[in-house]
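Researcher: Here's a chain I'd like modeled. Treat it as a single chain, no partners, no ligands.
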Amino acid sequence: MEQKITVSDSELEILEALWAAKRALNASEIRSTLNAHKAWERTTILTLIQRLVKKGAIAQEKREVYYYTPCIAREAYVRAETRNFIEKFFRGSSKNLAASLVESDSLTREDIEELRDYFNRNQ
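Model: Modeled as a single isolated chain. Structure tokens:
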């Protein structure tokens, strides 16, 4: 059975920086990447990194300093989180999720047509 990794929103930002980089980053590089939209202190970044290492979400490698790489691909993480979301809120039914989106007016007619075309192409 696959290990479920749950991360906080802040931890996810660290993962997103690593996924976007497509290479190992050290804590300083992660902080520089996040500085565009976050003003986190160095210690905050280090705490989040250590939590992710402990959870098995990222791996660390000692070079001149520690470098970090994700242990799960972004696509796999999104799939797992989507499955969890559907289980939690829609009793495991993707159909119920789609119905909820339509009923809440979250989808435009154009969105619905695009989804219909997508489903027809990918049957």
